[in-house]
Recover the amino acids of this structure.
């Protein structure tokens, strides 16, 4: 069974926000929620680096561990999903998550949170696959259609990869090997200097 | 001969009681202090990282170090903390909340209940030595009673709904099922969040109106030295309107209560733009102190009802039996009688 993973190549991401737009459009996420975002460190300085980040579908997910109503579940593909019918909007998962993935739409009076929303790896939710109810609450279920998340599919530089962990890391390993002329690479040059 | 045996037994008993007292104190302290362990942990990690940084200048390693350190960057999504890639403190919070707070806290509640049960089974509670006289004097004004019962009922509702958020997943989901518990939890959270600020308000009124009666004096020290005025051991100590135990409970309510209240208000209004670490810390303080408070409150509830005959009358009707007053608060009783004589009236007058 595949173990689904996202991987973002910081050497390739050009901060075009194509993934963010693709996700918003494909899943029609609630107003004010961004399931994916691009963060740039050292913006505008030489050596700036950008990463596209969303829910990373953790093994032993912190969000699931602290949820008081225990509404998270992990699919056979290792995708972390949750049941919006059970979510009470307590905010705990957003305190525990390292990536800032869980978000809350429709903040009403006194900042009362709505049902938590986060990236589903385009795998919908507990409702029947590709049903109207599922689409409305969780967005598209591309996994059930045999497709991968749209953010990665639309990435203009193929910095963002999504899919079976083994294949994704294989692609990345190959890339880094071909970058061996770069001075930052750990190897002969790093150890003994350029000869 | 028999006398010696019984006094021997008494001293062994009091030693055991003292040990129970100390272990209780140690437990309470560890619940308060252990959450702070997180700071030590993160401090160690961040100093270790800082040391690395100066020695190493590989740009990629530096980049990932900055990411792990929670450095802020730029993002088009203009909302709080969205410019941070990774916040590591959430994992600390998860370990402490699900670990120390839930485990030690759970045991604390159980141990408190068990101690009270054992005490009651053994002693049967304090009785009025001379029964009831039938004559009463006023102890609590209607204002005092309304405040007390408002705080008390809100406390119980908040305790039940609050404990449900921490333990419901383990205790109530097996009973109510996932959907059933979710429905209850959603109501419980709303109730907790709306009644919380009200509770803080009435708590402040209670503190302000009773603080003048609760200054600790020499007599209270004597009361404690006598083992809680005879709860432990049988020495009797003269005592005014409030004994040392009642005063300590007042100060627990004040200090713990205000801290729980403030941390609760921080958690209750997420629209004030608190960052995640603020919420994590507020949640730990709120949870740990609430559980300690609840465990101690069991003792207060016991003494006010089953544990001491005649005590509940005062909070229900405002009047206590004269024999109750003589037995537990003799100095206050004398004072009231003196006042009544001075005023030369037969009706009772509150000294409040
Ligand atoms: S929401 Fe956060 S903690 Fe939960 S699986 Fe996604 S990245 Fe991990
Ligand atoms: S916000 Fe919803 S999903 Fe998140 S921890 Fe609370 S109940 Fe669970």
């Amino acid at each position: 069974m595949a173990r689904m993973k996202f991987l973002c190549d910081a050497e390739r991401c050009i901060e075009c926000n194509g993934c963010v737009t693709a996700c918003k459009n494909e899943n029609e996420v609630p107003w004010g929620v961004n399931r994916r975002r691009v963060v740039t460190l050292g913006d505008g300085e030489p050596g700036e680096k950008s990463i596209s980040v969303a829910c990373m579908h953790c093994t032993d997910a912190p969000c699931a561990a602290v949820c008081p109503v225990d509404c998270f579940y992990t699919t056979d593909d290792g995708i972390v999903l949750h049941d919006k019918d059970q979510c009470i909007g307590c905010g705990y998962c957003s305190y525990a998550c390292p990536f800032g993935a869980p978000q809350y739409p429709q903040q009403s009076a006194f900042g009362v949170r709505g049902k938590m929303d986060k990236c589903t790896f385009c795998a919908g939710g507990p409702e029947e696959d590709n049903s109207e109810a599922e689409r409305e609450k969780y967005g598209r279920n591309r996994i059930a259609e045999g497709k991968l998340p749209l953010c990665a599919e639309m990435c203009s530089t193929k910095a963002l990869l999504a899919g079976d962990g083994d294949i994704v890391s294989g692609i990345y390993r190959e890339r880094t090997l071909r970058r061996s002329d770069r001075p930052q690479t750990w190897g002969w040059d790093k150890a003994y200097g350029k000869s | 001969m028999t006398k010696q045996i019984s006094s021997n037994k008494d001293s062994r008993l009091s030693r055991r009681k003292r040990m129970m007292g100390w272990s209780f104190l140690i437990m309470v302290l560890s619940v308060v202090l252990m959450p702070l362990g997180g700071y030590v942990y993160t401090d160690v990690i961040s100093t270790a990282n800082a040391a690395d940084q100066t020695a190493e200048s590989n740009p990629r390693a530096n980049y990932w170090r900055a990411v792990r350190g929670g450095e802020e960057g730029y993002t088009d999504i203009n909302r709080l903390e969205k410019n941070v890639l990774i916040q590591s403190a959430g994992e600390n919070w998860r370990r402490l909340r699900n670990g120390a707070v839930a485990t030690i806290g759970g045991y604390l509640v159980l141990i408190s209940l068990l101690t009270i049960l054992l005490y009651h089974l053994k002693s049967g509670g304090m009785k009025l030595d001379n029964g009831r006289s039938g004559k009463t004097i006023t102890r609590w004004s209607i204002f005092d009673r309304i405040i007390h019962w408002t705080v008390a009922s809100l406390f119980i509702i908040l305790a039940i709904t609050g404990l449900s958020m921490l333990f419901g997943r383990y205790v109530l989901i097996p009973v109510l099922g996932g959907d059933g518990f979710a429905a209850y939890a959603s109501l419980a959270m709303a109730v907790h969040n709306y009644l919380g600020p009200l509770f803080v308000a009435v708590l402040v009124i209670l503190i302000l109106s009773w603080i003048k009666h609760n200054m600790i004096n020499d007599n209270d020290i004597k009361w404690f030295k006598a083992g809680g005025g005879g709860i432990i051991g049988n020495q009797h100590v003269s005592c005014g309107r409030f004994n040392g135990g009642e005063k300590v409970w007042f100060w627990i309510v004040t200090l713990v209560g205000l801290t729980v209240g403030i941390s609760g208000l921080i958690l209750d209004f997420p629209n004030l733009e608190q960052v995640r670490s603020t919420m994590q810390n507020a949640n730990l303080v709120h949870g740990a102190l609430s559980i300690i408070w609840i465990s101690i409150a069991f003792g207060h509830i016991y003494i006010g009802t089953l544990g001491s005959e005649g005590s509940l009358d005062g909070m229900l009707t405002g009047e206590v039996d004269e024999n109750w007053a003589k037995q537990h608060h003799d100095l206050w009783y004398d004072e009231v009688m003196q006042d009544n004589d001075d005023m030369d009236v037969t009706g009772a007058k509150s000294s409040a």
Notes: The CA atoms of residues 35 and 119 of chain A lie 5 Å apart.
